[in-house]
Amino acid sequence: MSHNLGQRVAIAPSKPPFRPVPLADQHEPSVEGKVSEADSRRLLTTKEAAQFLSISDSYMRKLIAFGNVRSIKLGAARRVPLLALVDFVDGCLADVD
Prior knowledge:
97 residues, alpha+beta
């Protein structure tokens, strides 16, 4: 068996890290602490929605599948309205109270 110690191996470049687009009202929250009207219409991928909630993408998909988080289907793509995430968190906080 021969070893190729002198040969170089090409390594595929890795993907750049995910950087979500900042929300319009990130620096100036509204009076009620909700998202602005423009941001409430924003649609996120399941990956972006998962990162917004600091959970895994697979757990986000489970929340969608069980109806805990509202989403829409655009062709083959699944999108989560930002307002649906706010409603989900508000519901979780109401359960705690």
